[in-house]
Amino acid sequence: MGVLLEDVRDAGLLASGRRVLVLLSGGRDSTCLLDLAVRIAGTDAVAALHVNYGLRDEADGDEAHCRALCEGLAVPLEVMTPRRPDTGNLQAWARDVRYGAAAQIVLRRGGDVAAGHTATDQVETILYRLASSPSRRALLGMRPREGSLVRPLLSFTREQTAAYCRERGLGWREDASNDSPVFARGRVRTALLPAFREIHPAAEDNVLAVAEILRDEAEVLDGLVNEALGGGWTISLARLRELPPALQRLVVQRLADRAAGRPAPGTARRADEIVALSEHGVAMLDLPFGVRAVVERGVLRFEQTPSRRPAGAEPPASGASHLN
Predict the structure, then answer these.
(1) Residues in Cβ contact with 113 at an 8 Å cutoff, skipping those fewer than 6 apart
(2) 112-114/20-23 β-pairing
(3) Which residues pair with 114 in a beta bridge?
(4) 297: helix, strand or coil
(5) Beta bridge partners of 179
């Protein structure tokens, strides 16, 4: 799989001497990624993180595999063993633990965090988000780089990473829970994707092609939103009303996401209500995900609702001066 090595190197997400922390589960994709990182960035630049959640009987075996793999590649490995919560979304908790730990390590050592997401994962992600979220963001999929997070394998399929590992003589661990119908992701993988392939053999390639086109177009739309906001985080209601409805939705969604500190899906669908707020005095509209639209003296801003705001914290000031 020399082509895979050269393609990943040419993409530039992994580079010689650039520090990178690989999220290592022990599966085929992360095993492939770790080996590529060592070959491209160099042993001294690479470290790995494994999280042993203790959720499966095979968890300790996964950890032992990762330790042996890192020892063979001369890569330092950090292992976390978090305590499982009694309630809540287990998959969301696991994701937050993994990325939170990675962020702390990168703060100490610098560099990027590399995840082994593949083109196969990309298709599954888009289909899952499309079913669960009525937002154009669902169709954009994962980006190769998001801040310090990089996904060097996003152009390659799960079959290609497996072929790479076999050629390199690298073993990997299989997680049967990935295909479990208990989780929505498992149902997408084992039921929805096979149905797509039956409809058209190029179904997955077509999904990926559409996502790439939409990501390019999203950059154009983001530029229009930037222009409408004029570099700030407020907008006059009169100016908002002059914009085409589609751009109104994008503007209010951008402002809501910023106020929430994370995506606040569904805000765009309330754009008509926001535009209809009174320009006189102070008008407010509480929205999902702990955000509130506030119009004061004809100017629209978004803030966290009091119940979501940290104790003692003041709402963000108007204008852009408080934001980076």
Answers:
(1) 20, 21, 23, 99, 102, 103, 106, 148, 149, 150
(2) parallel
(3) 22, 150
(4) coil
(5) none
The amino acid that residue 317 corresponds to is A
* Residue whose pair of structure tokens reads 């801003």 in the numeric block: 301
Separation of alpha carbons 113 and 46, rounded Å? 10
Residues 203-232: tens digit of each pLDDT: 999 999 999 999 999 999 999 999 999 999
Residues 15-43, mean pLDDT to the nearest whole number: 97
Helix (H) or strand (E) holding 285: strand 282-287
- Give the DSSP per-residue string, 230-260: TTSS-EEHHHHHHS-HHHHHHHHHHHHHHHH
CB contact set of 183 (below 8 Å; sequence gap of 6+)? 91, 177
Averaged pLDDT score across all residues of the chain = 89
* Cβ-count burial 278-300 (b if 16+ within 10 Å, e if not): eeeeebebebebbbbbbbeeebb
Domains of the chain: 2-199 (3.40.50.620), 230-324 (3.30.465.60)
Question: What would the pLDDT profile of 78-136 be if each residue is shown by its tens digit?
Answer: 999 888 777 767 778 888 899 999 999 999 999 999 999 999 999 999 998 888 776 77
Q: In sequence order, which ranges of the chain are alpha helices (DSSP H)?
A: 2-11, 28-41, 59-73, 90-109, 119-132, 137-140, 158-168, 184-187, 193-199, 203-229, 237-242, 245-260, 271-275
pTM of the model: 0.80
Which residue is it, tokens 């980076």? 324
- Copy the structure tokens of residue 190: 């084992």
Report the pLDDT value the prediction gives residue 89, as an integer from 0 to 100: 75
Crossing angle of the two packed helices 158-168 and 28-41, in degrees rounded to 10: 60
pLDDT tens digits for 227-264?
999 999 999 999 999 999 999 999 999 999 999 998 88
